[in-house]
């Protein structure tokens, strides 16, 4: 009997502990349910509903994943929709005649600026001329070797030239003809420039500018739109570029207006002048050349300046070539831009002069008249013209009528009034090869011309070697003559013209539509023969178990290429207004095609967005239904659980109280 009592006490103790633990577990379970709002956080708490609960939870997660994917992609699709609609607006604008006129408008020719109107005056005959590009034209005239003829050069500063030798015997020219020059070379090639020389008596120059004011509006619009298109195709949503294919962090489109800079420096004027300072500045680097007067051509001067540019240290990113007095500076890439400026400062000038002729022997019945004049100076130059005018008789009584009336017995042998004039112009060959580069040599050459003139002059000329003295001797006794020598300075003010060429027409209009994996020229990763499959990748998204949408659009898309090609044709039209009609219709047709394709793309994009929104709504509704089913399985009645929890806490507290008192019970208290 002694062992039964302790064993019974232990059993009661274990029972008490288990009762208290069960009560506490019940409280913990009810508290967790009240806190979480769910019956259990352990699948075992759901019994036979556990498997169904797992399926519902998986479906809810999948539905939410689809909704999140759709929300992320929808932002990109909406941004693409805005871009496509804006591009469609641009294509529609440019396909209309109000934004892109069917013709370039009237050409504007500024009145020619004559360097020395007393020597040369030029008129441009607009109705007989056909121009190609905006340009500043320069006309230079140098007397040729034949009397009364001039070597005319016309250049546009862009590398185009035209030359001709014109016969303009009278002063001012009285041939009544217009003269047409056809430009060869450069972007203005093929231009026909019809000129009238209202005055031309010596070497001189003139210039005039040609432009199409109305095309400047279209040109500005084209360049503005190209800049906007670049920004649109480089649209970034979140951390990725929208049209970059799978190159998410790479800006896909470069400068759509960029081209390699090509600047031409055109030298113009005469050679054989000493002391002219040619100055050229390229990107802050200064280059100078002073003429010696022995240069064989303008090309020699241009070559010297070009060599200085080429030998710059450190080297400039510029390719330099020269030909026919034109220096061409070309950037090596579209990013190589540079400033060019230049001028010519003329050297000191000296004017050759004839002294006033003095008669050293008067004409008489027994002797001829002899007169002397001396040519002096140091300004002998190519193009200088030296004239000798000789007249006999009385200009106030040309037929001697008054003389015979006053002297009725005089023999009727007096000559009628008559003028004779000869001239000599220094040619390039004379100056460089025949040694006629001083006043003494010129005096000798002029005397030779006087003596060789047919019909003969009433005088002969003799040049005294080494002095510049010319002696004129009459050919008939008792016939007086008057000599009037003169010098027309043929010096031509040399010029240096700087002009940047418009975009190359061939490169602008050469078809450039490419297919995968080639890159269009405007892609930032473009290089000769470069390819990139990533640039052509289009984004996809799974929005349901059995539905994948290909929503991405790459900047390499053919529609974008067509739109940009249309702008290239439009730019070609405004950059070469003389060929405007040749390019503008092609541009318009490309704009129309791009507009139709952009609308189709926008339609698909909107359809994709609509499908996404419908699918997202379906997922949202399905997720709500799943949530309701989960609530039925997992959910609790807050009031019921609260009441049960309160009751359980009360019961547990009572149990603890009873247990505590039992542990304190003594035999004497029990007997009492």
List keywords for this structure.
single chain, 672 residues, alpha+beta, six-stranded antiparallel β-sheet, five-stranded antiparallel β-sheet, 12 helices, 28 strands, rod-shaped
Describe the overall structure:
With about 675 residues, the chain is an alpha+beta fold. It contains 12 helices and 28 strands. Strands 1, 2, 4, 5, 6 and 9 form a 6-stranded antiparallel beta sheet that branches. Strands 18, 19, 20, 23 and 24 form a 5-stranded antiparallel beta sheet that branches. The longest helix has about 55 residues. About 0% of the residues have low confidence.
Share of helical residues: 25-40%
Radius of gyration: 51 Å
Q: Termini separation (Å)?
A: 24 Å
> Average pLDDT value?
85
Q: Could you give a quick summary of the protein structure above?
A:
The protein has 672 residues and is of the alpha+beta class. It has twelve helices and 28 strands.
Task: Give the topology, please.
Elements: H1 4-36, H2 50-94, E1 108-109, E2 113-114, E3 120-124, E4 135-143, E5 149-155, E6 161-167, E7 179-182, E8 192-200, E9 204-211, H3 213-233, E10 236-237, E11 240-241, E12 262-268, E13 274-282, E14 285-292, H4 298-310, E15 318-323, E16 326-331, E17 340-345, E18 353-354, E19 358-361, E20 370-376, E21 385-392, H5 401-406, E22 418-425, H6 428-433, H7 439-452, E23 459-464, E24 469-474, E25 481-488, E26 495-500, H8 505-509, E27 540-544, E28 547-550, H9 558-575, H10 580-634, H11 638-664, H12 667-671
Antiparallel strand pairs: 1-9, 2-9, 3-8, 4-5, 4-9, 5-6, 7-8, 10-11, 12-16, 12-26, 13-14, 13-17, 15-16, 18-20, 19-20, 20-24, 21-22, 21-25, 23-24, 27-28
Helix pairs in contact: 1-11, 2-10, 3-9, 9-10
């Amino acid at each position: 009997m002694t062992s039964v009592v302790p064993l019974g006490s232990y059993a009661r103790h274990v029972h008490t502990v288990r009762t208290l633990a069960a009560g506490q577990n019940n409280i913990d379970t009810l508290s967790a349910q009240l806190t979480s709002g769910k019956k259990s956080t352990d699948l075992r708490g759901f019994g036979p509903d556990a498997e169904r609960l797992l399926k519902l939870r998986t479906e809810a997660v999948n539905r939410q994943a689809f909704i999140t994917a759709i929300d992320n992609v929808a932002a990109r699709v909406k941004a693409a929709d805005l871009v496509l609609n804006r591009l469609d607006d641009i294509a529609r604008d440019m396909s209309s005649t109000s934004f892109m006129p069917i013709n370039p408008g009237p050409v504007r020719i500024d009145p020619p600026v004559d360097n020395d109107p007393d020597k040369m005056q030029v008129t441009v005959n607009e109705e007989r001329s056909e121009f190609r590009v905006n340009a500043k034209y320069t006309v230079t005239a140098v007397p040729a070797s034949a009397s009364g003829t001039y070597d005319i050069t016309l250049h546009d500063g862009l590398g185009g030239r035209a030359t001709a030798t014109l016969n303009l015997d009278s002063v001012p020219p009285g041939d009544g003809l217009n003269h047409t020059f056809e430009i060869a070379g450069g972007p203005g090639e093929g231009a026909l420039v019809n000129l009238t020389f209202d005055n031309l008596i010596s070497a001189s120059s003139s210039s005039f500018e040609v432009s199409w004011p109305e095309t400047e509006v279209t040109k500005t619009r084209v360049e503005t739109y190209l800049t906007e298109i670049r920004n649109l195709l480089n649209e970034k949503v979140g951390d990725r570029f929208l049209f970059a294919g799978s190159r998410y962090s790479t800006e896909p489109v470069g400068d759509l207006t960029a081209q390699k800079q090509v600047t031409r420096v055109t030298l113009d004027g005469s050679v054989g002048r000493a002391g002219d300072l040619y100055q050229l500045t390229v990107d802050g680097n200064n280059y100078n050349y002073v003429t010696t007067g022995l240069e064989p051509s303008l090309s020699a001067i241009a070559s010297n300046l070009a060599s200085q540019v080429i030998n710059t240290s450190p080297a400039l990113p510029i390719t330099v070539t020269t030909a026919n007095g034109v220096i061409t500076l070309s950037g090596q890439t579209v990013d190589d831009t540079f400033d060019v400026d230049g001028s010519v400062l003329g050297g000191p000038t000296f004017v050759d002069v004839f002294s006033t002729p003095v008669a050293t022997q008067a004409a008489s019945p027994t002797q001829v008249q002899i007169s002397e004049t001396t040519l002096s100076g140091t300004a002998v130059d190519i193009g200088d013209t030296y004239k000798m005018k000789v007249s006999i008789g009385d200009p106030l009584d040309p037929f001697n009528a008054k003389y015979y009336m006053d002297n009725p017995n005089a023999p009727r042998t007096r000559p009628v009034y008559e003028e004779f004039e000869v001239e000599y112009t220094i040619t390039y060959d004379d100056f460089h090869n025949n040694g006629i580069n001083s006043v003494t040599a010129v005096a000798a050459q002029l005397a030779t011309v006087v003596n060789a003139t047919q019909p003969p002059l009433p005088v002969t000329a003799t040049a005294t070697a080494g002095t510049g003295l010319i002696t004129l001797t009459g050919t008939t006794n008792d016939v007086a003559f008057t000599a009037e020598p003169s010098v027309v300075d043929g010096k031509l003010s040399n010029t240096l013209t700087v002009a940047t060429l418009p975009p190359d027409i061939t490169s602008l209009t050469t078809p450039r539509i490419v297919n995968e994996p080639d890159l269009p020229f405007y892609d930032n990763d473009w290089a000769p023969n470069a390819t990139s499959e990533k640039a052509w990748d289009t984004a996809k998204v799974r929005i349901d178990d059995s539905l994948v949408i290909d929503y991405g659009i790459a900047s390499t898309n053919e529609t974008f290429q067509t739109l940009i090609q249309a702008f290239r044709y439009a730019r070609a039209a405004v950059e070469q207004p003389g060929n405007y009609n040749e390019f503008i219709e092609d541009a318009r047709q490309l704009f129309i095609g791009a507009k139709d394709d952009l609308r189709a793309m926008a339609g698909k994009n909107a359809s994709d967005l609509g499908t996404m929104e419908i699918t997202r709504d379906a997922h949202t509704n399905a997720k709500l239904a799943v949530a309701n089913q989960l609530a039925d399985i997992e959910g609790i009645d807050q009031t019921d659980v609260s009441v049960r929890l309160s009751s359980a806490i009360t019961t547990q507290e009572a149990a603890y109280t009873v247990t505590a008192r039992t542990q304190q019970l003594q035999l004497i208290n029990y007997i009492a």
